[in-house]
Amino acid sequence: MTITRSDPEPPGDFPVGGSGSRTATQQIAQFGHPVTRMLLASDGFTQPRLEAILGTDLQIRVLRQDELAAEQLPPAVAEALRLAGPDRVIVRRSCLINADMVTASVNYVVAVSGPAAAAGADDVHVPIGRGLISRGVSQRRHVLRAGLTRWPDGRLCAAKAYVIMLGDQRPLCYIREVFNPSVVPPEHAPISDEDLSWADEPEYPRSRATEPSTAGPSGCDTESPHTDGPCSRALPELIHPRECDSLTADLAAAARGRAFAVHLGARAHGALDIAALPARRALAISAAAVLNHGLDLPIVTIGQLRYDSETCRIPTDFDTMAADRKYRWAAAQLEYWRLANPPIALCAQMLRGAADRYPPSVVRDLLVEVASMLPIAASAPSGSRELYSSIAPLHISRTVRSCEADATRPQQPRQEWDRSTQLLWIGDRSHEFTSQHLSFAAQVRNPLAVTLAPTATPDDVEFLCRYLNPTRRPGRLTLIPALSGTRTAAALPALFEAATRCATPVGWMCDPMHADDPAAAIHAYVNACRTTGTAPAGLHVDTEPRSHLDTGLDAGRALHCVITTLSAMWAS
Fold first, then answer.
1. Checking CA distances to 179, which of 214, 507, 530, 569 falls within 20 to 30 Å?
2. Closest CA to 65 of 20, 10, 125, 114
3. Segments forming the whole domain that contains residue 256
4. Is residue 479 within 8 Å of residue 450, measured between CB atoms?
5. Using CA atoms, how far apart are residues 476 and 246, in angstroms rounded to an integer?
6. How far apart are CA 11 and CA 256, in angstroms?
């Protein structure tokens, strides 16, 4: 352990973990490489020195940022920051990466909420040091400790902890920087287990597997022409309208290029197979984490659940109890999709499995690094109020055809929502949508996604815009042109222009899964967006197996499309 002192000694100077038996000079001397010793001994900004080592610029990626009470911090950190009981702090976990997605450092930051906001240190897009410089804030750094710890993949690595003090001697934040052992050599004299303990983080609750509950209330507030009565109308709703409005806002951001949406299609069979949900949730989280790390954009993750074919179309010969049981089963699936603890171990396994398909490359390193970072992004102190996370909330979509409305049903003057889902998805590659689908969708305020079959024309796009979004509400309408052998990306500019002519905001999402060459289709889609000034709003990825004989989730194929999308957007 290392403690450095200045004269006069600043308040809060303390040992952070370790034995406290060595001075800073002595601890740094235990490292064998001069680059490591230089980096740890510096009391200036770390980022420029890392950029010099790598020979490239670095960018910040915030893995997680939470707000919690100061009393939840270890006493040593609270003392260093001079915190009192009522104070609140921002806890951030971030990393610095270069253009090749190499992670140079992983950083743990505790900042006092008030001063951090005043100094701009709560901005997730700007490194704290550079943010202070840009604002002309006088500050200095006081190193508390240097030593060894563990990199996210388990390797030993160099680290140091320090406090940033403002010009008036107020402590702003505590920072521990952990350096990639592939970038900063960690060779060190023998150490004990005590030397690896930093004891500067709040306690985290252990992640527990959450089993789907079958007791929760929820339901579909629509009517179906396929039944003699209401479709689950007597049962409580599954979705609150606020969730639909929130997703609409997210999709509006994606249509403007300020976010990116990932829509995961569902398997056609085994619609209520709750046992398969962890793998699908893991794929959703993995895809969002890779895209967030590579694009530095908020990710809107939407998963299609095919529960409605078993719940909304309730046969007339089923008694009430049978229908109720089926409904509760669907409610359990939705509850698990949204509320269960993220299956992080499964995510890491999925990402590393996908990485094994690639030779040593930037892509392989990216997948492995994201797998290592996910536990950091997923963990949260108890009682925290999350401000930002790379693990996007999971939204729900379903097809509209299983709750079709009567085309002759009069328009309702009041606002209605389909409370069995957040996003209504109309049509697919095999089934053209009908007037019943459109009539029902036009009556509800849910955001809508429409798959455009290969036969769709610019006139069809203009009709959909005017019929489904006459008020031109941003985020209301997302269009997904299915790219295949019969529709190439050369046809996309005409479709984009059709929406522009009627001044309707549309989010354009790519569906490359049935193209002859999905990778080529993705690149062509991004190029078409770039040449027309259209923001690439998202990616639709099927999670169905390749054949009826294959019952497994083809996560590798889906993640390959995610990586291809990253490559195409980097090139643009």
1. 569
2. 125
3. 222-379+387-571
4. yes
5. 11
6. 48
